[in-house]
Amino acid sequence: MLATILIKGAMIGAVYASLAVGFSLVFGVAKIINLAHTGFFMLSAYAVYVLVMILHWPILPAAGVVLISASLLAIVIYLLFLDRIREHEGPVILVTLALAIVFQEILLLVFKSTFLSVNAFVPGTTTLLGVTLPKQDLLIFVVTLACLLAVQILLYKTRLGLSLRVTAQNREIANLMGINVKKICMISVAVAVFLAAMAGIIVSPTITIEPHMWMHPLVMMFAAVILGGLGSVKGSFIGAFILGYTEVLVVFLVPTGSFIKGSVAMMIMVVILLIRPEGLFGVLFEEERL
Amino acid sequence: MRFIKRQFRRITQEVFTVPGRTIALIFLICLFFIPLAISDPYALKIFIFMNIFCIFAASWNVLGGFTGQFCMGQGAFFAVAAYTSAILNLKLGLPIWICIPGGALMSILAGLLIAVPSLRLRGVYFSLVSLAYPIILIGIVFAFSDVTGGETGISGIQPISRNPVIVYYITLVVMLLSIVAMWLLTHAKSKVFRLGIVLRAIQEDEISARCVGVNTIKYKLLAFGISAFFAGLAGGLYVHVLRIASPAMLDLIFSFNPIIWTVFGGMGTIAGSVVGVYILYPVMELLRFIPEVRMLIYAAIIIAVILLMPEGLVYWVRDKLDDECPRCKVINSFLRRECRACGAPLRANRKKQSDQAQTMDSSYGKEIVR
Fold it and tell me: Tens of pLDDT along B12-36?
């Protein structure tokens, strides 16, 4: 029981982490609240369904195609819609919400509201800590952590990462230092959507794929980002794991858990914010203190 | 008698010389004659809902557009009032005219409760956290399902009236009163209440507002209270028109609706909320004839309008129709060449302004200005 909770929580936490880190990155660098972020998660799950289950591609090329096309789609959307209204907070929220609805409605038109599922990429089970669990679950955990590690290396060990962090800190200074701010914002959106698409691909065998599946992860992702501190990648990561474990604990321990798992996670977030308004790892700048 | 005459002349002078105000007045008068033109009860019901959602959208505007608290959980206030009103009505058997204000008062309580953690947060943090409140409420609704009815909700609530025309006029009057009240409270140039200008100051720069001695905590709480009260009023009316209180009111999209309407119409002006509701809601209803692509077209309209006019429809139209006199700040019709109050030339100034805006756009200064 305990081991099951430990392992399931780690798995769900890893998925939320890859969503939350991407969202946090886009918010930090481009100052865009992207409500369509989990829309890309949903789109890539559907793309995997089409490529693997209908066209019978092997998984690796399918994943490659999905990742690249999702990132390209994100860049196109950024250039077409988001770039010109980036400065206005309300319109950005509204346009990204409308985009998420567009994704949902297109999928509803094409696939109707049927529940779809994808076969496991690696069949079979394995035993860990006395718990028998599908190999797919382990794969989710390993791949997600590898991706997040790669993002960490990108941010802290490369020149591109340096310019991303500079832009996040101060856009005008970054511009004066000769960084192409628009291009950097575009890259941050692409990287974030790459992470979301990765999460969508890798969890697609374990969830039911349906056109409304973007809402619950969206809310949990917000909560994880806020919990950890907006703009802090490490914070988002830890926040996601806290929420993942909370969700699993509630579902396992409370009889009607699946109804209230969202609200328990939200309450934990509000309580933590009451104690630490900037989130667990967020930094309050002097001018932001109240 | 002479006083009334003079006031009347003043109003006509102020209203009919400005096209934007004339349109607003004609629109308001038309609202009173809608039941004469439309006899279909279903169509009338759409107009009733439009009146109610006007209050809802405007209440979001008080918080989001004027105070700068971009609340993404306005549905929480709405639902608290709706459930309170429904429970008071069904379980305690109280009449409607106690239930709806009771719900609104409960909503103020909820608003203040929500405000306490929110006061410590700013900007985007607040927006994302406010998203949590409807979800927490869903948990509460399911946890106390013997009172709230759980997933099926509460049904069989007493209607305001059996006659839809009476319901229409009641909602219309309540809507107009609420709109005027919110306009008076938030109007920045109002000489009666100093609230509007303070809320603007908080929106522009909270630190500066504190520096000049504004108790921002107090005023933010006040804004939360006002917003929650009117959202609650809308919720109470809604539940007595629809006659069912269900967790659908706590959906993500229900909280986003007032934001969609208001940002579409224009944030920071009560007229924006009204325009947004009266354009988008009928569009949404007309699109019911093509149910498959309904939401798709709706989303496409929103994206197109936002990209064309990111400030909102009202500001866009106002820029086209009205000119502000550079000397005395009186608003003039776009047809006039000189100011109607002081005779200063308008056109030359307008051209110069647009030139200025262009140079601003092309330079990097745009971001600094913003």
Answer: 777 777 777 888 888 888 888 888 8
Of B234, B254, B274, the position where a domain reaches its end is B254
Report the residue of B303, B305, B368 to disrupt the A interface, i.e. the one with the largest count of A CBs within 10 Å.
B303
Count CA within 13 A, CB hemisphere, residue B85.
36
Task: Give the residue from B74, B116, B125 with the most A CB atoms within 10 Å of its CB, the best one to mutate.
Answer: B125
**Structural tokens at position A87:** 């400065």
Q: Which residue has the tokens 């269900």?
A: B246
Rounded Cα–Cα distance for residues B35 and B28 (Å): 14
SS3 A125: strand
All structural domains of chain A with their residue ranges: 2-211
The count of structural domains within chain B is 2
Q: Two tokens at A81?
A: 């819609």
Task: Kindly state whether residues B214 and B347 are assigned to the same domain.
Answer: no
List, for residues B184-196, the tens digit of each pLDDT value: 888 877 777 788 8
* Interacting residues of B1 by C-beta distance below 8 A, sequence separation 6+: none
Q: Which domain holds residue B66?
A: 33-254
The answer to the question of residue B64 being in a domain is yes
Q: What is the pTM of this model?
A: 0.84
Residues of A in Cβ contact (< 8 Å) with B142? 256, 259-260
